[in-house]
Amino acid sequence: MWQPTLDDRSPRYQGIADAIARDLADGVLRAGDRLPTHRRLARALGVTIGTVSRGYAEAERRGLTTGEVGRGTFVRGAVSRDPWPEASGEPESIDLSLSLPVIVPEEGQMLAESLSRIAADPSIGRLLEYDAETANPRQRSVAAEWIGRLGLEVRPERVLVTAGSQHGLNVTLASMFRPGEVVLTGELTYPSIKSQARALGIRLRGVELDDEGMCPEAVDRLCRQEPRPSGLYVVPTLQNPTSATQSEQRRRELALIAREHKLWIMEDDVHGFLLPEVPPPIASFAPDRTIYLSSLAKCLAPGLRTGFIVAPDELRPRLLTGIHTSMWMPPPLMVEVSTRWLEDGTADRLIEAKRRQTRKRQELVTRLLGPGLLGSEMLGSEVPGTEVLDRPGLDGCRMLRHPLGYQVWLELPEPWTTDEFVAAAREREVVVIGAGAFAVGRHGIPHAVRLSIGLPSWEDLERGLLRLREILAGAAVTPAY
Ligand SMILES: Cc1ncc(COP(=O)(O)O)c(C=O)c1O
């Protein structure tokens, strides 16, 4: 761990920035090095976390470092590619950082039962073969029927099976766009597309969001500016991180704009199956322009690693080649488990159980972070099912979430900044992700954090939320300055 020597003559926070400058000049630090977390450095130097935060802020102001909210502070010159926070693996911390579905206790048993049925099937050996079509006809037919339930009619031969939505997105980006091309995405977006685009040399531009997600007028405006975008990545249902869900009207508008400007839409419907009623996918309004990506990760289990692509016929060969290039096909055993769950009603039971538990967790959020704490009231939103917790008369203090969603987007009240809140939460061993991890571009990044409520046990979630409540109420740690 980097350990600076502080000069007694200047305030300690300045000493930290001075030491970074000195060690950079001396070659002790190099561009791209990650500096210790605020907490570790504070402990090592015997100073408060606030002093370290201030020292790092001073170093950033001098252009020596770059802070990536929720991920750490880096010596300037290189950008880390991993969008996830460093501390999420610390055993003692309560992890509200990873967007994972609620786990239903019976899941393990359901898997065991399916595996024993598969084991007893005389054709089990077929699951050891390559399949150039990504999955066998029965598996694709079950997938097509399932996708049809979301309002996208598709013939089984058009379904490509992937190892999840992230894989589908990676295949699509790599197959459809060349380095240097521009893809539009929400100005807050799923962090993985940022690292994927960076790795592929694709440029992202952030589109303004409102309570219904991506604004069509903003897409239209950016399409009329240079450099002209060639693609649009959109998560129309339970957008990550804001949980915004687009109305049918807005989906139609995006479809129209994409047609007009010849954009390829990448519609990531990873959360679509979670909601009982959801407007039809954008792909149903612009089937000729949309690459529809979906997955069983959120509604069933991420470990199934099973997702689907439905694309215009003319793109199918390209995307199939992309899947072959990346992994040939997803593991057939997992696709088979997924297929059986979709076929035999397990999926419906699991989704129902997840919805029940998620609703209870969101109610806990309301109890612990809700109106009593923030002096706010629950306002109905124009968008069905999306709740906005607003504090009248005070900007920047809203809580966006959906009663069936796994995430809470908490816009922080004054005087918190994202960095300070993330650091204060870590000090109390709660890991949350700050807005910077989701931000495309540097402008207008809100002071906000995402809380993922699916991963921790009920007790840990309650403890973690209570700690955040204390921080917000000013009872525990107050902002350093
Ligand atoms: C918008 C979005 N797309 C894709 C994924 C990943 O899906 P999968 O596990 O199917 O790769 C996530 C996970 O958080 C997500 O939020």
Question: What is the secondary structure topology, with strand pairs?
Answer:
Blueprint: H1 12-25, H2 38-45, H3 49-61, E1 65-68, E2 72-75, E3 94-95, H4 107-120, H5 137-148, E4 159-162, H6 165-176, E5 182-186, H7 191-200, E6 203-207, E7 209-210, E8 213-214, H8 216-223, E9 229-234, H9 248-261, E10 264-268, E11 290-295, E12 307-310, H10 316-327, H11 332-344, H12 346-369, H13 371-374, E13 377-379, E14 387-390, E15 398-401, E16 407-411, H14 418-427, E17 430-431, E18 433-434, E19 448-452, H15 458-473
Parallel strand pairs: 3-17, 5-6, 5-9, 9-10, 10-11
Antiparallel strand pairs: 1-2, 4-12, 7-8, 11-12, 13-14, 14-15, 15-16, 16-19, 18-19
Helix pairs in contact: 1-3, 2-3, 4-11, 5-11, 6-7, 6-10, 8-9, 12-15
Bound molecules: pyridoxal-5'-phosphate.
